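Reviewer 2 asked us to include a model.

Predict the structure of this chain.
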Amino acid sequence: MDQQPSSPSSRKANLVGVQFQAAGQIRDFDPGPLTLRVGDQVLVEAEHGHMLGTVIAAERPAVAAGAPPPRVIKKADARDLDKDDRNRLREREALRLCLQQVRDRGLQMKLIQVEQAYDGGKITFYFSAEKRVDFRDLVRDLAHSLHTRIEMKQIGARDEAKLIGAVGPCGRELCCSSWMRDFGVVSVKMAKAQGLSLNPSKLAGMCGRLKCCLRYEYDTYLELGRALPAIGSSVESVKGEGVVTRHNILKQTVLIRRADGVEVEASLEDLVEKKVQ
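Predicted model (structure tokens):
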């Protein structure tokens, strides 16, 4: 039997991953007939118009199910880049204007960043605030002055640090602003599992929240900790019988307090039997 040629919709085309800001979300786009490489700047279809982005992943496999991905319109040329530069200048002017109006009104909000849509149809102001802010009058006056649609977006402390960027206590650029694309859940339990001091000033990042890097070695500590007897359990070792008081997970040893009050360090090889409670 002759095989029917596959329709264009049934063929799987490779997609390209595009980001619109440093360490931002990667979105998939259909490049069509274009040959694109990592680092190329492209003009793409977006929900509310066109956007200028950068290709950071080529030949991502397409997902068969669901709506077709938006397409890449073209590679950015000199005119597109010039327009983007003009947008950056307009963002600075919009930020200056908004800051002045926020001060004049005495609004308790901190402006973080301004984003001008590529086609000029919208300007988005990102801000942080401890309480609810009534910015209806502010939006009306900004729209009148800038002659475009205005959107205000309140963001949290972590997003603020990501947008602003900084150098962390490790001496390197913040992970969130340099390469992290998503914020994972971070808890004090992760610090406890790694035997870290629960000093808030030591555990807090530049955003004032728990450091994202507490997650990096957490799973490793959990895996290594499973091999050690629980703290408080009675054990027998070549160094004497006693109760486990502390773990040294990386060394894979435990501290045992003997009946005479002396504490000894024992490795897993030193343990000969764990008593049943």
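The first helix runs from residue 78 to 105. Residues 177 and 257 are 46 Å apart (CA to CA). We have added this to the supplementary material.
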